[in-house]
Amino acid sequence: MKTFLFVALAATFLWVSCETRPPRHPGDGNILMGKWAYRSLRNNPNLNIHFDTLEFAAATVELQHRGKDSLVGQILWVMDSTPLIYNGLNLSGYYYYSDTTLCYFLEGFGDSTLGTAGWQYNSQGYLVPPWLEGVDQAKVLVGSTIRVKKHSCDSTGRHCSPAGVVASTYMVKE
Fold it and tell me: Domains of the chain, with CATH numbers?
């Protein structure tokens, strides 16, 4: 429940602090580079459902620089509880500052070699600022992701994962 409340509050902060506008604060975004443990949750306000049913995805994200403020990378998740079979998306996007908040936008595109041809997810978020009194704080990105294109339809073309589904996300730097 604490995680759900944290993600909801973080999404509100994102809306206020990461408007789409030109950067005001110079920065190199180096904190974004590297590996992140990724989790996303369905946004269901019913406190009576089991927390495990909120899971949307768990994966590893790796980000690298591409140019001045551009990002590239991949998100990979294990399929069928077999640790050697991965699905994933190729990521591209950018980061920017809104006042002093480091924000990001990523597009994830499917790839036939990753078992996700035709998929597209977009994500946006920001780096959670550290607490002055905090102890052993992790570097954390919070935000949301949207399924841009439907996918994974059955053989009749029905029962797809529909476009437009939004989940709250958080990533912890490894």
Answer: 2-173 (2.40.128.30)
